[in-house]
Each structure stands twice: as structure tokens, then as C-alpha cells.
Amino acid sequence: MSELLERAGEASEFLKKLANPNRLMIVCALVDGERSVRDLEDSLGIRQPGLSQQIAELREAGLIAGRKESKSVFYRLADERVAEIVSLLYRMFCKPGVDAVSMEGSRND
């Protein structure tokens, strides 16, 4: 039972890092590969101070990694579990044909 509790705690901490909408958008943007901070800022509409804060959280958790090239910093996913979670979330919430009504209906079954 203690192993189950330990695993549940680990999973909970992992999910907490992705539970912030801005952090979730960042990892979604990185699923297809490396992107610069500037590109993330432009495509996600998150201004630099907020973006930097969320990137720092993801880096500290080991979910993303960065590399510097000249004056730019590029980020990529560093934990394959993130891509798996994002793929699942895409199928549940973003895939064409999935809407809030069908999601609510599946909860009531």
C-alpha cells in the first residue's frame, strides 16, 4: 500500500505542474519539437515575464529543457510522459468531433 501511495503522490505532483493553463499551452506547443522563447511568446500570446515564470516551473520539474543559441533560447520536452499526457488530452478535449456536450455525456454514463 505504501508503494501505491508513493506512486499516487508522484503522479499528483506531475499533474500539478501541467495543471496551469499557460504551462499546459507551453508543453502542447513543444510536442511537435523545439521552439524559441520568442516563438512561444508570439504563438501563445503569453508575455515575456509570465512566460519566463512558467518556463522556469517546467524546467525545475524536469519536464522541459533549454539550450542557448546566440541570443535565443530554445526549449523542448525533456520527459516523454508529457507528450503522452498531451496526446491523451488532445484526444479528450481537442480532437475534431469532441465537444463539451459529448464530454459531459460520457461522464454521466
Written account of the structure:
A hairpin with a 2-residue loop joins strand 2 and strand 3. By secondary structure, this protein is α+β, with helices and mostly antiparallel strands. The model has no long low-confidence stretch (mean pLDDT 90). The longest helix has 17 residues, at 2-18. Strands 1-3-2 form a three-stranded antiparallel β-sheet. The protein has helices at residues 2-18, 21-30, 37-44, 48-60, 80-94, 100-107, and strands at 35-36, 64-69, 72-77. It starts with a helix and ends with a helix. It has a single domain, classed as Orthogonal Bundle (Arc Repressor Mutant, subunit A), CATH 1.10.10.10. This is Winged helix-turn-helix transcriptional regulator. Keywords: DNA-binding, Transcription, Transcription regulation. It comes from Aminobacter anthyllidis. Residues 1-97 form the HTH arsR-type domain.
Residues in β-strands, percent: 5-15%
Please, how many domains? 1
Helix share bin? 55-70%
Give the H and E element order. HHEHHEEHH
- Which runs of at least 5 residues are low in confidence (pLDDT < 50)? none
What name does CATH use for the topology? Arc Repressor Mutant, subunit A
Please list the strands of the largest sheet in the order they lie side by side.
1-3-2
Radius of gyration, rounded?
A: 16 Å
CATH H level, superfamily name = Winged helix-like DNA-binding domain superfamily/Winged helix DNA-binding domain
Largest β sheet strand count, sense and barrel closure: 3 strands, antiparallel
Count the beta strands. 3
What general outline do the C-alpha atoms trace? Answer: globular
Mean pLDDT: 90
Q: What kind of oligomer do you see?
A: single chain
State the end-to-end distance: 30 Å
Number of helices: 6
- Briefly, what CATH class? Mainly Alpha
Architecture per CATH nomenclature, i.e. the level-2 architecture: Orthogonal Bundle
Organism: Aminobacter anthyllidis
GO molecular function: DNA binding; DNA-binding transcription factor activity
InterPro entries: ArsR-like_HTH (IPR011991), HTH_ArsR_DNA-bd_dom (IPR001845), Metal_resp_trans_reg (IPR051011), WH-like_DNA-bd_sf (IPR036388), WH_DNA-bd_sf (IPR036390)
Pfam families: HTH_5
